[in-house]
Amino acid sequence: MAGAGHQDSLETSGPAASGLDTSVPHIARVYDYWLGGKDNFAADREAAEQVIEAYPGILSDVRAQRAFLANAVRYLAGTAGVRQFLDIGTGIPTANNTHEVAQDVQPDCQVVYVDNDPVVLSHARALLVGVTAPTAYVDADLRDTGKILVEAAQLLDFSKPVAIMLIGVLHLIPDEDGPHAIVTRLMEAVPSGSWLALSHPARDVHPQQVTEAASRFNQLAAAKATLRTRAEILRFFDGLELLEPGLVQVHQWRPGLDAPGHNQQTAGYCGLARKT
Ligand SMILES: C[S@@+](CC[C@H](N)C(=O)[O-])C[C@H]1O[C@@H](n2cnc3c(N)ncnc32)[C@H](O)[C@@H]1O
Asked: Ligand 1 centre and the CA of 120: distance in Å?
């Protein structure tokens, strides 16, 4: 959600009071900068620029990822008839947020957002005032699937299909924290007919550039990014039925449908899969 200017004025409130340390880049605000938003601080902008310098394609990649999110939600709320969404790693609101796309297709769609960033939290609270259908926000870490599922169950009915959205967030979970087991726990909690929508940055596309970009980001940010190969990302879909065209580079997913408008080889994979 764009404000009148950058957010540095908030820095006066201090990290201890708000839980916000503006001196360390956080991916939510770095991502906001790449998308042209205003909800970022000097440290976020510095990290974002470092990544752009190493891998300029990041700017079109993040837009392609937003297009995938909108296309996937439109498919789920429309063709697939899903009415419940659990969007983990929400991000700072921008255009076409999950509840807006879903409720545009079907006004009774219910959405629970989950994030662990205080800036995302404050924007989410403001954004959710007056939405058409019940929509909620959970302040939790993706690793804490127990808390996420208990709190989401206050709004969502886990006996009915749920679309779990993990768009651009699993790379912030290092291998030692068991990202594949996290996805398994989430998918075990939902009934058949539920979906997994996932997008993840790649290590095996433009490998030299993206490795350098990740290394620069990781030197600055507290939460480090782990890039993964297509094979490693495909494992997140184990036991699920991938919708055509399968796990593909983000710009290739259902091209023509709100396509991001570029032919660049995105350094990221995405897919949509159904629990049978
Ligand atoms: C790159 S942004 C993606 C935002 C959005 N899903 C999109 O595709 O536009 C990643 C988001 O995940 C959140 N995030 C990162 N690590 C997280 C964690 N361990 N638990 C919950 N949220 C996390 C960040 O705060 C940020 O909002």
From this structure: 9
Task: Report phi then psi at 99, rounded to 5.
Answer: -65, -30
| pLDDT profile of the chain (276 residues), mean per 10 | 32 44 93 94 97 97 95 96 97 88 94 92 77 84 98 97 98 98 98 98 98 98 97 98 96 71 82 98
Nearest CA to ligand 1 atom 8: 167
Burial environment of residue 39 by CB neighbours within 10 A (0 to 12, 13 to 18, 19 or more): buried
Rounded to whole angstroms, the Cα distance separating 58 from 266 reads: 8
Q: Burial-class residue 88 by CB neighbours within 10 Å (0-12, 13-18, 19+).
A: buried
pTM of the model: 0.92
Can you tell me the distance from the alpha carbon of 273 to that of 148, in angstroms, rounded to the nearest whole number?
A: 21
